[in-house]
Automatic annotation (TrEMBL):
Family the entry assigns: Belongs to the MsrA Met sulfoxide reductase family.
Keyword Oxidoreductase: yes
Name of this protein: peptide-methionine (S)-S-oxide reductase
Reactions accelerated catalytically: [thioredoxin]-disulfide + L-methionine + H2O = L-methionine (S)-S-oxide + [thioredoxin]-dithiol; L-methionyl-[protein] + [thioredoxin]-disulfide + H2O = L-methionyl-(S)-S-oxide-[protein] + [thioredoxin]-dithiol
Segments forming domain Peptide methionine sulphoxide reductase MsrA: 94-236
Length: 258
């Protein structure tokens, strides 16, 4: 597992606190993100682990420094709005959170009938979040994959099968060594039909497991596309430059960090 990175001495947690308006809770462990910091050819900006001071600002009542409560409310209202993007004709969107979005995206890329995938952040309370914002654990965003699929060639049930097979839906805010609210299990629906299928699918899965499924099923919210180097990360080569196939129907094992 890649080592955690130490933030540079010049980083200022107060600047981020000003953007968020209200911080709370401990920062997550960022194991898989540390790998991204070393991919210079994919990541124009170095990604660093937020300093511990960030998670303490809210506990000390200092998280609102530099920002107004009204601005925070406005930011949350925008972030909680519906996804206003539109899929291509004959296609529909679906959003899934199942841990680190690198491997989840590659799994969906391989599904016949999926015409586009993007990784990003959703279900949070900050408008236009950055990777650093999400990693504080204070914005409540989840790492999600937005899947666009041709309804004539792919069914929502097909996507649900991939979703359940890709992760452990019984571990709250955790997938393996990745811990934090951004790694929670979630299905975010765009239509009543998707919601119905998701709930029926969850019931079927629960009968197969001896632990309680904690997957949240909620309406899809505004989707914030993640930084470019995150997009199709494993197909591009990941940390070690080892490209993984996104060919339709490919069943090669997915190595989460490349």
């Amino acid at each position: 597992m890649p080592p955690l990175l130490t933030p540079p001495a010049s980083s200022s947690p107060l600047l981020l606190a000003s953007r968020l308006g209200a911080l709370h809770g401990p920062a997550p462990l960022l194991h898989h993100r540390a790998a991204a910091a070393s991919v210079h050819f994919l990541a124009p900006r170095r990604k660093t682990r937020p300093g511990p001071a960030m998670s303490w600002l809210g506990k000390l009542g200092l998280s609102g420094l530099g920002g107004s409560p009204r601005a925070s409310e406005a930011s949350a209202a925008l972030a909680q709005g519906p996804d206003e993007d539109r899929p291509a004709p004959g296609n529909e969107f679906a959003q899934f959170g199942a841990g680190c979005f690198w491997g989840v995206e590659l799994a969906f890329q391989r599904v016949p009938g999926v015409t586009r995938t993007e990784v990003g952040y959703s279900q949070g309370n900050l408008h236009e979040p950055t990777y650093e914002d999400v990693c504080t654990g204070a914005t409540n965003h989840n790492e999600v994959v937005r899947v666009q699929y041709d309804t004539g060639a792919c069914k929502f049930d097909d996507l649900l099968d991939v979703f359940w097979a890709r992760h452990d839906p019984t571990t709250p805010n955790r997938q393996g060594n990745d811990v934090g609210t951004q790694y929670r299990s979630g299905i975010y629906y765009y239509t009543p039909e998707q919601e119905k299928a998701a709930r029926e699918s969850l019931e079927k899965q629960q009968k197969l497991l001896n632990r309680t499924i904690v997957t949240e099923i909620l309406p899809a919210k505004r989707f914030y596309r993640a930084e470019e180097y995150h997009q199709q990360y494993l197909e591009k080569g990941g940390r070690f430059g080892f490209r993984q196939s996104a060919d339709k129907g490919c069943n090669d094992p997915i190595r989460c960090y490349g």
